Amino acid sequence: MRNMLLIAKREYFEQIRARAFLMTTIGLPALFVVILGIGYAANLGLGGKKHLVITADNPALANEIREQLTNDNDGKLSVDVLPSSDSSMNSTLMSELQNKSINGILSIKAQSGELPVASYTSLASGDFMTGARLRRALNNGLVGEQLKSAGVTAAEADSLLKGISIQTFQLKKDGSIVRTSAEASLWKGYVMALLLSMTTMIYGLNVARSVIQEKTSRIFEVMLATVKPTDMLAGKLIGLGAVGLTQILIWLIAAVALVVTPFAAAMLTGEYSLHFSWFEGVLFPLYFLLGYLLYSSLFAGLASTCETEQELQMYMPLAAAPTWLSFAMIVLIMNDSNSPWAVAASLFPPTAPIVMFLRMASETPPAWQFVVSIGLLVASIIATLWFSSRLYRVGILMYGKRASLPELLRWLRYS
Amino acid sequence: MPVVELAGVTKAYDTKIAVNNLSLTIEAGQMFGLLGPNGAGKTSSIRMMMGITIPDSGKVMLFNKPFERASLERVGYLPEERGLYKKMKVIDQLVFFGCLHGLSADDARKRATLWAERMEIADALQKKTEELSKGMQQKIQFISCLLHEPGLIVMDEPFSGLDPVNAVLVERTLLELKDEGNAVLFSTHRMDQVEKLCESICLINNGQAVLAGKVRDIKSRYERNHVIVEFDGSPAFLASEEVAEAKNFSGHAEIKLKPHGDAQKLLHAAASMATIYRFELLEPSLEEIFIQTVGGATNA
Asked: Can you give the residue range of the structural domain that contains B247?
């Protein structure tokens, strides 16, 4: 026990003093701020000003659409309206599009007794943001034009077309009602799950790297003459896990410090109001610890069978696959956080930490699911530790070449 | 009191038997040499003594008790594959290893400082290990094995990588430790050092002990079949039927006798042909015994 703690202490201080710790502690949240900032900026339409041309044989409809497009606050557009194009005008517009003096041509052709037919030509094939805005403007423009032709005043038509905004509230388990935003909750859950997956992976891989470095520096033989391999492995897992927890603690303190500032108070109210609970504050480090122990114990065993970090790369998909799977389920989880798939993924140990946080973003799952997910994680950590410590005991003294699968199976039998 | 006792120890990996029914005893205050060609089973034997691997059969006793991990606190081990934490400061590293052997941090620090002065590396204590030369790192590792004042010191090739000055320093320190009553086991290929330092040896080949006992007793078992002759006159006596091999360096001849060759007959022949200034019958060196024994076993 004493030696295990000595090893944990050595690992902890070596990592904490390293420049990489400082860089990830500051760098990771900074990266998220940048990513969120870019997303926010894109939403505001900071991508640059666009110039569209509408050709229509119904000028009233075309003007209505232009009004809809230019009144849209989401982005900056300048729109010109031209009468229905003939072939020479068409080729002029196409060459303007080609030399990028305009960004797109929306052509609307009336059909007797039916809805007009619209087509949009641009150089970009996948501008879905513009596509969505055009569709909205077309629909609203058509309805507006018909309302006006039916005698409704412009002001009445505008107010009808404005739409109604919905305020969302969440009824908490304690009976309180808080104002929420689905979008803000999604971002909160996403960022927390991303932080969780990144820290779990980073520290899990740190354990693997540390095992390989010790194997390369041949320090194991000295250590094993004093310390049991299981104590060495446990000391390493505890030391590096404590580094991860320290980092999370720093982030939590920073988050709390931010929340109490007037700036944050303003940010956390209104349409994008966010709510953090003590429950999340406890669960976040807990799920980090469980996820970290699961991955790091697996990687420690696998790393002891490798000679170099390059060889370790072969096992990377094992780490990445559950993370990809978890994030691939994000839409499914956001649509229905209690669907059987979402529940199953939040109980399945490799995906549990991330999926649970994604689910919590929309609704707190029932207590029994937390208990089962934590119980399954603990059971799988014990199983992985058993498997890894056996590989580790033999692998750390094997030099020269990477072990093949039959050799690994033999190692499991030996120890 | 025997400090190490291996009794019929066997260890096999897959189909290869690394150590086969090996028995040896090392007493307190004894310098013991474990010899053998590469792959003979020296490191495997040492690893079993250190509890790094477990024997398939046989018994390992340390300090007169069946092996238990607690006994390792009284053992200092320098493996052939040296290893230190490269990014750690030397003093922190020594304190860490001292603590692992049961010392308090303060005690470990004091002893590390004293040992660093004794091994002439006090200036390196505040440096990172990676900044030091290989020889310096070796001395640090040497100290790390001794901080906790072990009763048994096990050193696998302790002189490799050391310059002659530092090799003498390590050699002198090992002799002092032996004189203080510690048992010292070292494995090496340097026969001259074994001959000079060890009272007892065990020569292993293919996992088995092929020669064991006190160096003096072993050497006395071998014929004195080497002769050095310094002479003036005809070298024709070198063609005597007693001689197996001879090298003549103008008046200085090194002669190897045939098995059971008679040195007295050779002396008579030499004296009848030349003036003899020196005629010395030598016992074989440990190196020759090593080559003869291992070569014989390999050829058999």
From this structure: 223-282
